[in-house]
Specification:
Helix content: under 10%
Strand order of the largest sheet: 2-3-7-6-4
Radius of gyration: 27 Å
Low-confidence stretches: 1-27, 58-69, 380-393
Largest sheet: 5 strands, antiparallel
Strand content: 25-35%
Distance between the termini: 57 Å
Number of strands: 25
Shape: globular
Number of domains: 3
Structural class: mainly beta
Number of helices: 3
Mean pLDDT: 80
Length: 408
């Protein structure tokens, strides 16, 4: 299937005969099949059947959208559709997705968003779905639609790359790439490379995840440097060597075409340059962290760390609590661009009682080392003497108590 993107539908939802894909029988609402083109709707980008009345239909089902299994088919391309069945030519690719029940509607949401400029066909066999329909309701509904990108749409940009610093350790574990808008994720690994000092791509630099590891909004892409080339004494590193070498300069490059869900791509390739410094083989040290609390009752509490920590993990694994009850305090958190500090602003004024900032031991530094665990610890009689032992707080959260007007 072509690159799949969410888009406005530039045409009316109509069946192969050029009429609305549904009928109204004797004043009773008949089921209609349509593509949702309203960008303000939470069902935007779906094919919707409604009203759908079936007491036996599941609320949610994973579907390949084949008529033989679910009675709800979606595929690429237009076709001369049969008025009595949902069969389509084998040469036209089936669109995979999920069927979900929402009240009296049944929605098909594709696994990958529909592609702008691509024609699709949808067909529903109401008999196979167990739909209770008016007597004159057609049993088979058909629809052809072509999403458009929308002339006012903006091209995507890379809004942030983490680590934000120009220097990275030789055992760096991950990159985060954040885009300005939701992206089309299919085959993203083909377009992201790490370029070595000699100007050629570094082979097998990243863990091979063809469609990438994305956040729920399809905006932040996580790239893992191949761990087998980070850990000492394992096969890939022994055979291929490390991905990053101290003293070398590398370039993270995103090649075109990389498409957003609005159908537009990066205007030009993106590059960010890094200098590789010595490997980090020590755990973050909580005894070197400091806590700052402003006097204002609505002010932010801030934790400063001894090194750069994973920003995404800080947002997940650092929280503020009441000391006596353990109840979470409502508010908003943020991190510095370099991951060296975390701050939290309460929604309501701070209470007069003692509170706690809690840091889970899962938080890692740039090399994947956490408070209680080293990502790569060399062992054996030839291992060098380094500070590699975990801290006493290895298995428990780090708890930093504070009160309003008192710095930790």
């Amino acid at each position: 299937m072509a690159a799949a993107v969410l888009a406005l539908c530039g045409c009316a939802a109509r069946d192969s005969a050029g009429t609305d894909a549904g009928v109204n029988a004797g004043g009773n609402a008949a089921a209609q099949l349509r593509y949702i083109d309203d960008r303000t709707s939470e069902s935007f980008g779906t094919v919707q059947l409604g009203p759908f009345r079936s007491p036996t239909a599941p609320a949610s089902a994973s579907a390949s959208a084949s008529a033989s299994s679910e009675g709800f088919s979606v595929w690429t391309g237009a076709a001369a559709l049969s008025p009595t069945s949902c069969a389509h030519p084998e040469s036209q690719a089936t669109v995979l997705g999920r069927l979900q029940r929402h009240g009296e509607t049944l929605r098909f949401r594709p696994r990958l968003p529909f592609a702008a400029g691509t024609t699709y066909s949808a067909c529903v066999d109401l008999r196979r779905l167990g739909h209770t329909q008016p007597q004159s309701q057609r049993a088979v509904l058909q629809l052809t639609f072509t999403p458009s990108s929308g002339a006012a749409s903006a091209a995507p940009t890379v809004s942030e790359v983490w680590p934000s610093s120009s220097e990275v350790p030789a055992n760096l574990l991950r990159f985060y790439i954040t885009f300005s808008q939701p992206m089309h994720t299919r085959s993203i690994s083909e377009h992201v490379q790490l370029i070595g000092t000699d100007g050629t791509p570094i082979a097998d630099a990243f863990v091979d995840i063809p469609n990438g590891l994305w956040d729920a909004q399809a905006r932040r892409l996580t790239l893992f440097v191949h761990p087998g080339r980070i850990k000492r004494g394992v096969g890939p590193r022994t055979v291929q060597g490390p991905v990053l070498t101290t003293g070398h300069r590398v370039t993270l490059r995103i090649e075109r075409p990389v498409l957003a869900q609005n159908g537009l791509g990066l205007a030009q390739p993106f590059e960010r340059h890094f200098t590789v410094i010595d490997a980090d083989r020590a755990s973050p040290d909580p005894t070197a962290w400091s806590l700052r609390m402003p006097l204002a009752a609505h002010g932010a509490v801030t934790v400063d760390f001894d090194e750069q920590l994973d920003r995404a993990q800080l947002m997940r694994f650092v929280t503020a609590h009441h000391s006596d009850t353990g109840e979470a305090i409502p508010g908003s958190a943020q991190t510095s661009l370099d991951g060296r500090s975390w701050s939290f602003t309460p929604r309501e004024p701070w209470p007069a009682t003692e509170m706690i900032v809690e840091v889970q031991p899962l938080v890692e530094d740039l090399a994947g080392n956490s408070v209680g665990r080293l990502f790569d610890e060399e062992t054996g009689p030839s291992a060098p003497l380094e500070r590699v032992s975990p801290h006493p707080t290895a298995s428990a959260p780090v708890r930093l108590p504070f009160k309003v007007g008192r710095d930790g």
